Amino acid sequence: FASRGFLRRVVVLREVDRHGGVSLRSFAARRARRLVPLLVAVLAAMLALALVGKMYSTGDVLTTSLVTLTFTQNWAVGHVDGLVAGHLWSVALEAQFYVMWAVTVALVARTRRPHVVLAVIAIAGIVAVAASRTYLLEDGASMLFLYGRTHTRLDAPLMGALAGIVASAGWLGWLRGRVAAVAGAAGLGAAVCAAALLEFTDVALYRGLFTVVALCSAMVVLAVVREPAGPLLRVLSLRPLVALGIISYSVYVWHFPVFEIVGKNTSGQASVLRVVLAVAITLVVAVLSYRLVERPFLRTRRGL
Fold first, then answer.
1. CB burial class (10 A; 0-12, 13-18, 19+) of residue 197?
2. In this model, does residue 5 exceed pLDDT 50?
3. How far apart are the first and last CA of the chain?
4. Cβ-based neighbours of 32, under 8 Å, separated by 6 or more
5. pLDDT by residue (tens digit) across 182-220?
6. pLDDT in tens, 106-115
7. Would you state the pLDDT for residue 124?
8. pLDDT greater than 70 at residue 141
9. Secondary structure of the chain in the HEC alphabet?
10. What span, in angstroms and rounded, lies between the C-alpha atoms of 180 and 174?
11. From CA 103, how far away is CA 151, in angstroms rounded?
């Protein structure tokens, strides 16, 4: 979330710097072309499986399609029965953030110091979300609720937005040389460790660690922006990582149904073999999906 928030905010702020404002219609069209075609493709594939086999229920896929394509799935989880492709809650959260932040930028764009105002709004939002999440946890809210709701997870994209503001405004003079290298490496190491070692049920995440992980991710991005010739970017520019980054949206969207299908049809196989098979199939499907679904729409857009 933090890295995506950073990239989109840099693009929007560049539009503000160049034109003195933001075209909400153009921004919405670009985001729709980026997000919707692949969602339609995976939902159509799941509906086809429901019609020809027993993998999914047709009603469940249609219900899921409704909440997915209206970008409300993160609020439907726990309230609507029979949802499939539950991982798409994060796409809903991402789309909601795009709308909220684009409107905020459009309103602030004509103020005397828009970068300062936006930075204050982002910081206030991060603090408010982190505090709200901790309060709701102590008040007895379930982790499933806290994990996916908009007001309990916006700190990550807001952190990315803040990083984008800092970079766009030229406030990175302090981050250079060895400081950038150390900050970036530390941020990357911490983010990787968190992803490898933590489960969404770990209480520490809801008591501030989600925000810390988002900050670590933002530090990685800022370090790369500040030191584009540094060792961190050379590592992140390795061809396999770049290739994976290009198809990352397709990988994310397709991996869940692929793992479900492989799991259901290879129950007698060793778990390691099942995971390897699912990963391999996911990568193949993601490459095909990127070339046949994503790229045609990406070619029609301007900017991000």
1. exposed
2. no
3. 15
4. none
5. 999 999 999 999 999 999 999 999 999 999 999 999 999
6. 888 888 888 8
7. 97
8. yes
9. CHHHHHHHHHHHHHHHHHHCCCCHHHHHHHHHHHHHHHHHHHHHHHHHHHHHCCCCCHHHHHHHHHHHHCCCHHHHCCCCCCCCCHHHHHHHHHHHHHHHHHHHHHHHCCCCCHHHHHHHHHHHHHHHHHHHHHHHHHCCCCHHHHHHCHHHHCHHHHHHHHHHHHHHHCCCCCCCHHHHHHHHHHHHHHHHHHHHHCCCCCHHHHHHHHHHHHHHHHHHHHHHHHCCCCHHHHHHCCHHHHHHHHCHHHHHHHHHHHHHHHHHHCCCCCHHHHHHHHHHHHHHHHHHHHHHHHHHHHCCCCCC
10. 9
11. 17
